């Protein structure tokens, strides 16, 4: 994807440094006319196409007489045709994986690490459509596209959620601020800031979410990583065993021996870095890559890169650190890393940062790495299907 310069109005003319220092995870920010680059609107007709696919996550939320209903996609065309004129919202995740200009919008937030960026969820709602007052555990930017929506927000989230509702709806909501967002307006909210949006006219909300995994999740995934990476020596032994008269008892000596064995479980910063690269580039469970059944021949691929450059698949997440390159949960093998020069490594890092490389002649070792990724479906020559 083409690298785009930072679009200052995205934050209302505020610099990224000022935004991070004064607003990020601190207080809301309303930005009038934050974004005006809409080559097309992802309207209900387009969202409906996505919501009918089984490889895309979608939801339908309706409210009638104070009762909430949640349905999960994929949806049949007949179900979508039966929707009433008011009081429902359809939400589609990861639209940035499907539409290039939505991906371009997401990567305008490149003043934050890609490891923190999650996706662009697009919702459509007719008048009265809402998902109720709630809060998110992560930062979110809410861009209004078409129509109008009333947003009310509150720093008070102490009342908890309605217990029998299929979605997270706050029991009580006491708004502190209120705005009407029109086409191109955007609202930033820190984590756990309660908000309540109700469509006044048919329109879309482009929601940019950020990854904020729980400590428990990180710990569980890291333990899974250790299971694959550790190779511990030895086995249990007790040459000084004594006769026992309580054979069912787990005695202190047995516990101490097991505890001593477990002290071999250790990790260092290098292992943590490798885990981070793999975990934060791992695709979501519903994301799959189609390996090319008929990929370009190597020489054709090289010629195409020379003429057009190369771009990551919209679904791809590419990260790097001092020790490695990570693409879609996989680390570049040590022998491949060793074969690359400092210049070639810099070019791979540029591909990760910019999500594309320009047309040009590249060295053989780098081209071989790129071609392997091409075969996996992770990237392709620019403008090549």
Radius of gyration from the CA trace? 25 Å
**Element string (H = helix, E = strand):** HEHEEHEHEEEEEEEHHHHEEEEHHEHE
Total discrete domains: 3
Strand content: 15-25%
Low-confidence runs (pLDDT<50, min 5 residues)?
A: 1-8
| Helix percentage range | 25-40%
Q: Assign the CATH architecture of the largest domain.
A: Sandwich
Helix segment count? Answer: 11
CATH level 1 class label of the largest domain: Mainly Beta
- What is the CATH topology classification name of the largest domain? Jelly Rolls
Cα separation of the termini: 13 Å
The strands making up the biggest β-sheet line up spatially as 1-9-6-11-5-4-2-3
Judging from the principal axes of the Cα atoms, what is the shape?
globular
Describe the structure.
Residues 1-8 have low confidence and may be disordered. The strands form four sheets. The chain has an eight-stranded antiparallel sheet, covered by helices on one side. It has a three-stranded antiparallel sheet with strand order 8-7-10, with no helix packed on it. It folds into three domains: 8-210, Cupin (Jelly Rolls); 215-279, no CATH class; 298-381, Malonyl-Coenzyme A Acyl Carrier Protein, domain 2 (3-Layer(aba) Sandwich), CATH 3.40.366. Helix content is 28%, strand content 21%. It contains eleven helices and 17 strands. The protein is α+β, with helices and mostly antiparallel strands. The protein is globular, with a radius of gyration of 25 Å.
């Amino acid at each position: 994807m083409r690298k785009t310069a930072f679009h200052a109005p995205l934050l209302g003319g505020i610099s990224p440094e000022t935004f991070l220092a004064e607003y990020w995870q601190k207080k809301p920010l309303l930005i009038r006319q934050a974004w005006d680059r809409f080559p097309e609107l992802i309207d209900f007709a387009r969202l409906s196409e996505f919501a009918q696919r089984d490889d895309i996550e979608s939801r339908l939320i309706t409210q009638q007489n104070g009762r909430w209903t949640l349905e999960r996609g994929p949806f049949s065309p007949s179900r979508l045709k039966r929707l009433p004129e008011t009081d429902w919202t359809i939400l589609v995740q990861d639209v940035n994986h499907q539409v290039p200009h939505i991906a371009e919008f997401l990567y305008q937030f490149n003043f934050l690490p890609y490891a923190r960026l999650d996706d662009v969820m697009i919702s459509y709602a007719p008048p009265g459509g809402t998902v109720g007052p709630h809060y998110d555990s992560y930062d979110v930017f809410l861009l209004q596209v078409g129509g109008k929506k009333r947003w009310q927000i509150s720093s008070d989230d102490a009342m908890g959620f309605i217990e029998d509702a299929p979605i997270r709806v706050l029991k009580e909501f006491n708004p502190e601020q209120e705005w009407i967002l029109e086409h191109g307006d955007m609202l930033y909210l820190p984590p756990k800031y309660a908000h309540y949006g109700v469509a006044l006219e048919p329109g879309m909300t482009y929601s940019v979410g950020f990854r904020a995994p729980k400590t428990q999740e990180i710990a569980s995934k890291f333990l899974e990583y250790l299971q694959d990476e550790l190779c511990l020596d030895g086995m249990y032994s007790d040459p000084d065993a004594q006769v026992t008269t309580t054979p069912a008892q787990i005695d202190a000596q047995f516990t101490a021996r097991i505890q001593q064995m477990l002290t071999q479980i250790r990790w260092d910063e290098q292992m943590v870095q490798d885990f981070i690269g793999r975990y934060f580039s791992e695709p979501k469970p519903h994301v799959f890559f189609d390996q090319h059944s008929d990929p370009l021949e190597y020489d054709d691929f090289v010629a195409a890169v020379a003429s057009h450059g190369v771009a990551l698949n919209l679904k791809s997440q590419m990260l790097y650190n001092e020790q490695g390159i990570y693409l879609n949960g996989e680390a570049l093998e040590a022998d491949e890393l060793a074969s690359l020069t400092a210049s070639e490594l810099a070019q791979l890092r540029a591909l990760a940062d910019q999500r594309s490389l320009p047309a040009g002649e590249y060295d053989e070792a780098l081209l071989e790495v790129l071609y392997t990724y091409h075969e996996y479906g992770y990237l392709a020559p620019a403008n090549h299907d």
